[in-house]
């Protein structure tokens, strides 16, 4: 648990998500959120030429602080996956079927 996801209050098949929890390592969570906030400042200033479409759409719909936590959550999940599988990070990797189209 890192405290970057909503608290789950689900019961009987009905999903009820609560507030973003603050469970887990406070230092790790703050570093991830600070990094995500720096990324958002860069994108919002118009310097993020290769910004992800997901991120741009999220910024249109949600407040910047909430988007920062969502980006921090995404960064944490990517880092966990890389550590578990031992893979290397490939930025802007495009599946071959999209390249061929």
The residue-averaged pLDDT reads 79
Percent strand: 5-15%
Per the principal axes of the C-alpha atoms, what is the gross shape? globular
Largest sheet: 2 strands, antiparallel
Decide which structural class fits the backbone.
Answer: mainly alpha
Can you tag this structure with a few keywords?
single chain, 101 residues, mainly alpha, two-stranded antiparallel sheet, 4 helices, 2 strands, disordered C terminus
Notes on the protein architecture:
The chain has 101 residues and is mostly helical. 54% of the residues lie in helices and 7% in strands. The protein has four helices and two strands; from the N terminus they run ββαααα. It has a two-stranded antiparallel sheet. Strand 1 (6-8) and strand 2 (17-20) form a beta hairpin. The longest helix has 22 residues, at 64-85. The radius of gyration is 16 Å and the shape is globular. Mean pLDDT is 79; it is low at 96-101.
Any chance you could write out the topology, listing elements then pairs?
Blueprint: E1 6-8, E2 17-20, H1 26-44, H2 53-61, H3 64-85, H4 96-100
